[in-house]
Design goal:
Blueprint lengths: L1 H20 L7 E3 L18 E3 L7 E2 L12 E3 L7 E2 L12 E3 L21 E3 L22 E5 L4 E3 L11 E8 L3 E4 L8 E8 L8 H10 L4 E9 L4 H8 L1 H4 L4 E11 H12 L5 E11 L14 E9 L6 H10 L4 E5 L17 E3 L22 E3 L8 H8 L7 E3 L21 E3 L19 E3 L20 E3 L19 E3 L21 E3 L5 E2 L5 H4 L1 H4 L3 E2 L8 E3 L15 H4 L1 H26 L1 H20 L2 H5 L4 E6 L5 H14 L6 E3 L10 H11 E8 L1 H5 L1 H17 L4 E5 L13 H9 L3 E2 L4 H15 L7 H5 L1
Parallel strand pairs: 1-2, 2-4, 3-5, 4-6, 6-7, 7-8, 8-10, 9-11, 10-12, 12-13, 13-14, 14-15, 15-16, 16-17, 17-18, 18-19, 19-20, 20-21, 21-22, 22-23, 23-24, 24-25, 25-27, 26-28, 29-30, 29-31, 31-32, 32-33
The structure holds 2-acetamido-2-deoxy-beta-D-glucopyranose (3 copies).
């Protein structure tokens, strides 16, 4: 219970320190650390929140130095040469929460400036040149203080009332550097109310001093960290001090740091005292041992649950490894951590051990024999062998064989490989396996414990997840990131998968359909793959919108890598229309379009008589072209009329009311020859007709059923056509006033028939709107400029 509590307190301390001294998201941070500054820079931005001036050569702080920084929350002046602080130098910085003045040359610990910064939570003034550690009255006003760092490098005494000013405060951590301590009044530390106390122990062998300090420390906090433990030759002072632990201690977590011990034997002596105290967790880090000699260590009853060793250095090469292994094999703790200590092997612990948690990360284990056939680790729940040199996955599997409680195994960051046809033998209890950062291939899927719930095989050499393998029905989380997968795996063998990580692989066009077998998937990380943004990727790029699956890293880590013109585009912004991607749809649209167009054209022809317009326009352009080609100059000399009009008497009303007005009166008037109007008296009709035809540029025949009936008209047509043949000029214009059914044309008029078949004729439109185009066409057909006036010729 107490252990739990201290664990939370640790978290709390960590969190506060973190939030205090590390930037939040929108804080303005100025980092001028290690810039060889000798004064505080001028013109710092006035909205600065966090200012780091540590590790410079600043000797003095002036009153104006921070006067403009009203929002300053954290100020780091550590590791400078400051000996002088202007009184009131923080008077404008009431927001200050974190102040680090450690490792400077301050000589007075009065700290008047604290009056101005009463919201301070973190204050470090350790490692200065104080002559005493008698805290000034100003400390009393720090109502929110959580962390206090004290200490001096001058020889000091610690006296009864030195820490009185903070004695009423519930602090989280106090760190006191007492390396240079010369005298100590017992009880001085006990006035502190702090969850964690860190003491840098004196480097002196003055009789009794260490014992009094330690006895005080053991009774001052729940978590105690002691550093600077130096006993080369003679360790009895420490050993004796730890003896008092059993009687006085309030400590449940003991951390020993920076130890230099002469002999393994000394460690065992200290350990024995700790074992019989009330301490629940012991952590030793950064220890140097010079010698390993045997000392017996019986299985003692203990409250100790957790034993942690980190960064242990043994400076002798020749020693009996068994001494060390025997010790670890026989201690009765639940939690054992030995990390970063160059360990190459560990023997199977003795029967009756109660290990539940073992962490041997960052050592040099490389043996195939590690814990093989070890039948006494049957309480073990968690085994961490991260960052060692293990080589064979098959061996790792057989190692676990008898660990019937093992749930979690971490063998990440080793050099594991697996040969084909290895017959892996895992313990059945394993639910979480971490194989990340090894050299495993696709074969790894043939060597997995069957009840796995979480599998991490990130950073290996996996190219695909084989389909034919024993299914892992309980697997919920699969981490496959940073491999060489060419495709998204499907879930046919992991039907209950909830979390899938496949980031940083090599797939270009994952298809979301492969995830269809993953019915229970709730989270997917497929970020940082070289996506090829083409039609195939469309479904995948819309997965975020179309499913409830949470996509880790979306949208910023999902970018097109190909094609080049889309490189760097977010998948979120990559859109291709339905049409571009579906051939069927494209066909439907093209065909549909054509059908619609045909219908529209059909309708237009039907209702608007488009063909008629086309025909007229075509004729008009043809005429224009012909007119350009003919040498009109030659022609015009003997011509008197633009056109001769031949028509049946029955159509004369149309000729007089429509044709003549439109040709002779509108626009540029044309001269028309009508045989009844322009007849030269005294000449026969035939002669007159011929004359009229000869003097006209064109001959217009108004065709209608009436025309067929008229003999005369036929003559006229005959002559005119004759002239066409003789002069090689195309001067017949047929105007179809009313359509003539073929059967109405008598067979003797075969000429007219063939003419009508050969020659295109102008149709007279009944629709008024169309008539203008008709006239324009007709005018264009006969419109040339004539020089000779009619009168001269005929009169
Ligand atoms: C101040 O800077 C020093 C050296 O850069 C660093 O070790 C220390 O942690 C910093 N202090 C705080 C409170 O961040
Ligand atoms: C053992 O250590 C692990 C990991 O540090 C922790 O989660 C667990 O609570 C510890 N167990 C005991 C009994 O202290
Ligand atoms: C596996 O171990 C690595 C460190 O080697 C760690 O980063 C990762 O989070 C672990 N995986 C799981 C699923 O805990």
């Amino acid at each position: 219970m107490a252990n739990m509590r201290s664990f939370f307190v640790w978290i709390l301390i960590f969190k506060t320190c973190y939030s205090l001294c590390f930037p939040a998201e929108n804080d303005v941070v100025i980092n001028n650390s290690s810039c060889s500054l000798s004064t505080v820079p001028k013109n710092l931005p006035s909205h600065t929140h966090i200012l780091d001036l540590s590790q410079n050569n600043i000797t003095e702080i002036h009153i104006q130095d921070f006067a403009s920084l009203h929002w300053l929350k954290s100020l780091n002046l550590s590791s400078n040469k400051i000996s002088n602080l202007a009184r009131g130098f923080l008077r404008s910085n009431q927001e200050l929460e974190c102040l680090d003045l450690s490792n400077n040359e301050l000589s007075s610990i009065e700290c008047h400036f604290l009056h101005n910064v009463t919201s301070l939570k973190y204050l470090d003034i350790s490692d200065n040149s104080f002559l005493s550690l008698t805290l000034g009255k100003a400390f009393r006003f720090l109502k929110d203080l959580e962390y206090l760092g004290l200490g001096s490098r001058k020889t000091i005494k610690l006296q009864k009332n030195d820490l009185k000013e903070v004695s009423g405060k519930q602090l989280q951590e106090v760190s006191i550097g007492l390396k240079t301590l010369s005298e100590f009044d017992p009880g001085t530390l006990q006035v502190l109310r702090t969850t964690k106390l860190h003491i840098v122990l004196p480097s002196t062998n003055k009789t009794g001093l260490l014992e009094t300090v330690l006895r005080d420390a053991f009774n001052s906090s729940d978590t105690l960290k002691l550093s600077n433990i130096e006993c080369y030759q003679e360790c009895s002072q420490y050993i004796n001090s730890f003896k008092t632990l059993g009687k006085f201690s309030r400590v449940s977590n003991l951390l020993l740091q920076d130890l230099t011990l002469e002999d393994w034997k000394d460690l065992i002596s200290i350990a024995k005292h700790i074992w019989v105290s009330t301490i629940k967790s012991l952590s030793i880090s950064d220890m140097t041992l010079r010698k390993i000699t045997y000392a017996s260590f019986e299985c003692l009853e203990t409250t100790l649950k957790t034993f942690t060793l980190r960064r242990i250095k043994i400076t002798t090469f020749y020693f009996a490894q068994s001494i060390v292994y025997n010790f670890f094999g026989s201690i009765m703790v639940e939690n054992l951590t030995i990390s970063n200590s160059g360990l190459i092997f560990m023997t199977c612990p003795k029967e009756g051990n109660i290990y539940k948690f073992m962490d041997f990360s960052d050592n040099s284990f490389n043996s195939d024999f590690l814990f093989q056939d070890c039948r006494f680790l049957n309480l073990l729940d968690t085994l961490i062998l991260q960052q060692n040199k293990l080589g064979q996955l098959f061996r790792v599997s057989t190692m676990t064989r008898y660990m019937k409680s093992l749930k979690h195994l971490d063998v990440s960051q080793n050099q594991l490989t697996l040969e084909e046809n290895s017959n892996c033998l895992w313990t059945n209890s394993l639910t979480k396996l971490n194989l990340s950062s090894n050299k495993l291939t696709d074969l790894v899927f043939t060597c997995l414990p069957s009840r796995l719930e979480i599998l991490d095989v990130q950073k290996n050499d996996i190219y695909s997840v084989p389909k034919e393998l024993n299914s892992l029905d309980r697997l919920k989380e699969l981490y496959l990131g940073a491999n060489k997968l060419a495709n998204l795996p499907d879930c046919s063998n992991f039907r209950n998968l909830e979390i899938l990580f496949v980031e940083a692989n090599s797939f270009h066009e994952p298809s979301s359909s492969s995830l269809q077998s993953c019915q229970r998937l709730t989270m997917l990380n497929a970020a940082s793959n070289p996506f090829t943004c083409t039609c195939h990727l469309r479904d995948f790029s819309r997965m975020k919108e179309n499913t409830h699956i949470e996509m880790i890293g979306w949208p910023e880590s999902y970018q097109c890598a190909y094609p080049d013109n889309l490189k760097g585009t977010l998948l979120k912004d990559f859109h291709l229309s339905e049409v571009t991607c579906s051939t069927t749809l494209l066909l439907v649209i093209v065909l549909g379009g054509m059908i619609v167009l045909t219908i529209v054209i059909g309708l237009m022809c039907h209702f608007l008589d488009l063909p008629w317009y086309f025909r007229m326009t075509w004729q008009w352009t043809q005429t224009k072209r012909r007119a350009m080609k003919t040498d009109t100059h030659l022609l015009t000399e003997k011509l008197a009329y633009h056109a001769f009009v031949s028509y049946s008497q029955h159509d004369s009303s149309w000729v007089k009311e429509q044709l003549l007005p439109n040709l002779e009166e509108r626009g540029s008037p044309l001269r028309i020859c009508l045989h009844e109007r322009n007849f030269i008296p005294g000449k026969g009709i035939i002669e007159n007709i011929i004359n009229c035809i000869e003097k006209s540029y064109k001959s217009i025949f108004v065709l209608s059923p009436n025309f067929i009936q008229s003999e005369w008209c036929h003559y006229e047509l005959y002559f005119a056509q004759h002239q066409v043949l003789s002069e090689q000029s195309d001067n017949l214009i047929l105007v179809m006033l009313e359509s003539i059914p073929q059967y109405l044309i008598p067979s003797k008029y075969y000429k007219l028939k063939s003419l009508m078949a050969k020659k295109t004729y102008l149709e007279w439109p009944k629709d008024k709107n169309k008539q203008r185009l008709f006239w324009a066409n007709l005018q264009a057909a006969i419109g040339i400029s004539l020089t000779a006036p009619t009168e001269e010729v005929f009169v």
